[in-house]
Structure formats: C-alpha cells, structure tokens
C-alpha cells in the first residue's frame, strides 16, 4: 500500500472578505506526482504557499507522514522536508550555481567555507538527479530552463522530500519541458513526492499520477490520472464544456500595416536578427515559430521600440518607426502584450483601473483638459473586468495581489481594446486557464476579422497552428520559411525549427 506523505484537513485562507481557500482537504501519496488544477484564482498558489510555510492558514491543519505540523516560516517548512520552485526565481544572478545552491548551508572546513567540497557536492547532486548544470557557471548567464534546474537543486540540497512546482512549465520551451519531465521521473523513482500546478492538460496526462481540482477555493474532484480524461478535468474546473479548437474563417488580408525590410540587430558576422524582411497585413494573424534563442526576442524588441536596430527599416501604418522609442511606437499604432507581464506588463503597486489604462490615459474620454475623468476610468475598468472575467473584488484593488492568470488577463484586456492597427502578442495565454484560453483565442480572431494586423509569438506550437494564417519560422536570426497555415503541421514546423528545409535530403 502507498504511504500518505502529505495531507491537509479543512485549510481555510481569507483575504478580507475573499475566501481563497475554503476548507481544502488534500491527500498526496509518497512518491507520486500530484497535479493541482483549477481556474485562475481558484486558490492553487495560496494553498502552495501555505504548504511551504510562507503564509499561515486561518483554519485547518497540515499533516506530514501522519504527524500534524505547523510551519512558522518557509525555513521551518524546509526543515520539515518541503521544497518549492517559485515562478519568479529567487536566485542571485551575480553568484555562481554552487554559491546559490549552498547559500545559507555552506559546507565548512573549520571556520572557512569549503569551496571545493561545495562544488563537488553540488556536482554530485546534479549528476544523481540528472540535472545537467555546471556548478561553476554564473546564474545570470544561464537560460530560464537551466535556472529552474538550479532552483530544484537548491531544494534537493536541503533534502526536500516534497517538491512544489507552481506552473513550472509556463516559462519553458517544449525541449526544456521534456528535460524537466525527465528530472521529475528521476525524483519519483527516488520516492520524492511532487505537487505539480499547471494549466496544461496534456502535461497532467503525461506526467502525473493523480489530480486534485479546485474551484473557488474548494476541492471539486479528486481522481487518478489514468482513470480520467482532459474533458472530465475541464468540467470539474469550470463546470462547463470548453471548446479547445478555434473557429475561424480564412483571413482576408488588406493593406500592409507593418513592413520590415532588412532588419538587423547585432553587428559582426552573425547578427542575432539577420537582414530580416516580411510584411504583415490588416486582417491577418502571422505566427512566429522557432526554438527560443533564434532571434525572436530581439526581433520583437526592435519592432516595439525596446531596442534600436542596427540596420534595416521598419514602417508602421506608413510611418518610419525604425528609430522610434516605445511611446512613439504606441502613438504610431502599436498595441503590445509583452511576454513578461509582471515586470514590463503591469505596475503591481497600482490599481486594476490604472493598469487597464496604462499608456492610454491621454486619450478621450479618460482625459478632460488636463484632468483625468475618474468616472470614465472606473467605468472602463469595470467593463473590461467583466468582459475578460478578471477575478477581482473591484477595480480599485492593486494588481500585485491578483493571481498569475488574472494579471495576464488585465494586460490582454488593455491591449486588445484600444483599436491599434497592429497588435504584437507574446505568449498571450501563458498562465491563463483553459476557459480563458478559449476566450482570448476567440478575441484575437475577432480582432483580426475587424481588420487588425496581429503578430503572434508563442512557445506553444499548438497555439501558433490554431491561430495563424501564416507562419514564419525563425532560425538563426532569419526567416527560414513563410508558410500558409494550411501547409504547416507540427512535424513540418519541428523540422524547420531545427534548421532543416528538406532540400538537402
Ligand atoms: N495577498 C493577497 N491579498 C489579497 N488577495 C489575494 C492575495 N493572495 C491571493 N489573493 C487572492 O486569492 C485568490 C486566489 O489566488 P491564487 O493566487 O491562489 O490563485 P491561483 O489558483 O494560483 O490562480 P492562477 O491560476 O491565476 O495562478 C485570488 O482571487 C487572489 O486575487
Ligand atoms: Mg497561481
């Protein structure tokens, strides 16, 4: 029989009048991968932070291997064998991998830190759990996927028996995700227990043993993964059937809205963006596919004014914006959903109403003369909150307290509703629940049909395929292929993304 590793009984957590956890009973067996699912704001991260000692529950108890525990802090939880990898990593970028991993628990020889022993221990731990990472590398130089491995190493160095992963794959490329799954399998084989929070049903089906579904702070369903289906999980989360395919008619492209000619970022023999040219028309969605690190980030930075290109020319609605900054791009007709919603997308210490207005406050009806029209601002915010299903008490709430997916909805709502001719959307559905994905996809298609030009960047090939009328494959800073939607499928894109055009064979 499987031992119960972790249990909670009647966990309640309130924030003012909002009940984020409303009597949660959880039971997790030793050595299993346990999915925690639920819509944005259902209470998943709140529960995880309670299990990691970062917040105390208002009611209820936690049992570890049958013993009741009360965590006074995260340090206390770590001492009890809990580990957590946060979505926003908590590493020191200027330090090396080993320094981060042993931080606070350094091996010593006499009074001095034993550097050699630390590096050896971290290296051995990495090898044992197949977390390929160089202990002496500087964290700031590492990719997101590798940094996540460092966080996992750090937890394992503190001998975590239960590892909490809150949306660990949201920031990973498909390749990095496969690597993480290998690590999870190794941990499981070592009888470690994993709590896995995700919105991605195929991941739940692929890697987990059982699922607990939360809805409005309560458990609605517990099931063994092998006995359930994605449709059943969706029903438990939302109480309805969600349409996972996107309904759309063929595009009817109009005039060119964005014209990119010979765009170059970087100097030298191999620029990151290498004399890249394409046109994006009104009424079409163009998707950019590519393995991360092939110039997509720099291309978008150059197109949004975050970075000055080193060559070429960019025209937006007939205006030359090659040298323009972000504000000038907005004025010329750019709406932008940035990949990083927490840092560049929102101001956490400002209200939802202010965030929903950000960048557009100088326009009517929000400004009258020099004054902001508070009533118009509030009404606008309430309308968007309702339409986009943002879970929030009211528009005056600071967005810093919103759940991850609800923060993303705020950014999407703002950028979709200002009728700019060009929308650049990076990872538009990252971190949002299935119901919200359905809604955001439908909105993007509706905006296209209203004549907007949309440039879509997504790490999810399925999302690129579902939405794009045309797909540009980027490889080493160039566009390797420009495919109409009908000519693309995952296999063909996969080969192109690896730089294989097919002519060679
Ligand atoms: N510190 C806080 N102050 C006020 N409200 C909070 C705070 N932390 C969380 N909440 C609220 O509690 C609810 C649950 O949030 P939580 O972050 O647990 O959701 P979640 O299930 O993780 O959602 P997501 O899928 O979007 O990450 C939300 O309505 C959120 O706004
Ligand atoms: Mg969350």
Automatic annotation (TrEMBL):
One Pfam family per UniProt: ABC_tran
KW ATP-binding (keyword) present: yes
Superkingdom as given in the UniProt entry: Bacteria
Record key words, sorted: ATP-binding, Nucleotide-binding
Protein name: Heme ABC transporter ATP-binding protein
TM ranges: none
Lineage: Bacteria, Pseudomonadati, Pseudomonadota, Alphaproteobacteria, Hyphomicrobiales
GO molecular function: ATP binding; ATP hydrolysis activity
Entry similarity comment: Belongs to the ABC transporter superfamily.
Keyword ATP-binding: yes
InterPro entries for this protein: AAA+_ATPase, ABC_carbohydrate_import_ATPase, ABC_transporter-like_ATP-bd, ABC_transporter-like_CS, P-loop_NTPase
All copies of domain ABC transporter, residue ranges: 6-241, 258-501
């Amino acid at each position: 029989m499987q031992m119960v590793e972790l249990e909670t009984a009647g966990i309640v957590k309130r924030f003012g009048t909002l009940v984020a956890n409303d009597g949660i009973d959880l039971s997790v067996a030793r050595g299993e991968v346990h999915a925690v699912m639920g819509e944005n704001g259902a209470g998943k991260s709140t529960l995880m932070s309670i299990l990691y000692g970062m917040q105390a529950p208002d009611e209820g108890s936690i049992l570890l291997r049958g013993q009741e525990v009360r965590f006074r802090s995260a340090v206390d939880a770590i001492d009890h064998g809990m580990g957590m990898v946060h979505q926003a990593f908590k590493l020191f970028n200027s330090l090396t991998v080993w320094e981060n991993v042993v931080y606070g628990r350094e091996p010593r020889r006499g009074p001095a830190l034993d550097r050699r022993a630390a590096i050896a221990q971290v290296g051995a731990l990495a090898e044992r759990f197949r977390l390929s990472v160089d202990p002496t590398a500087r964290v700031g130089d590492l990719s997101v996927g590798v940094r996540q491995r460092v966080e996992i190493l750090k937890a394992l160095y503190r001998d975590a028996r239960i590892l909490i992963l809150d949306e660990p794959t949201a920031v990973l490329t498909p390749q990095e995700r496969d690597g993480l799954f290998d690590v999870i399998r190794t941990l499981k084989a070592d009888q470690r227990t994993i709590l896995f929070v995700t919105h991605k049903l195929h991941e739940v089906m692929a890697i987990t043993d059982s699922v607990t579904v939360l809805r409005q702070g309560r458990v609605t369903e517990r099931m063994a993964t092998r006995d359930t289906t994605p449709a059943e999980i969706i029903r438990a989360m939302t109480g309805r059937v969600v349409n996972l395919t996107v309904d759309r008619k063929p595009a009817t492209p109009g005039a060119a809205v964005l014209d990119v000619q010979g765009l170059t970022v970087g100097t030298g023999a191999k620029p990151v963006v290498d004399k890249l040219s394409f046109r994006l028309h009104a009424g079409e969605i163009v998707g950019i596919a590519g393995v991360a690190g092939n110039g997509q980030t720099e291309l978008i930075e150059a197109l949004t004014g975050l970075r000055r290109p080193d060559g070429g020319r960019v025209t937006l609605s007939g205006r030359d914006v090659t040298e323009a900054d972000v504000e000038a791009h907005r004025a010329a007709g750019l709406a932008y959903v940035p990949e990083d919603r927490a840092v560049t997308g929102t101001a956490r210490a400002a209200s939802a109403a202010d965030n929903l207005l950000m960048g557009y406050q100088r326009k009517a009806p929000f400004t009258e003369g020099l004054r902001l029209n508070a009533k118009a601002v509030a009404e606008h915010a309430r309308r968007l909150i309702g339409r986009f299903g943002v879970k929030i008490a009211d528009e005056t709430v600071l967005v810093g307290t919103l759940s991850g997916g609800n923060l993303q909805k705020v950014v999407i709502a703002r950028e979709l509703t200002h009728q700019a001719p060009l929308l650049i959307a990076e990872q538009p559905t990252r971190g949002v629940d299935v119901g919200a994905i359905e809604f955001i996809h439908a909105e993007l298609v509706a905006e296209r049909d209203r004549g907007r030009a949309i440039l879509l960047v997504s790490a999810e090939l399925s999302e690129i395929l579902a939405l794009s009328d045309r797909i540009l494959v980027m490889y080493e800073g160039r566009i390797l292929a420009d495919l109409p939607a009908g000519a693309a499928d995952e296999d063909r894109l996969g080969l192109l993304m690896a730089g294989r055009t097919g002519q060679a064979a």
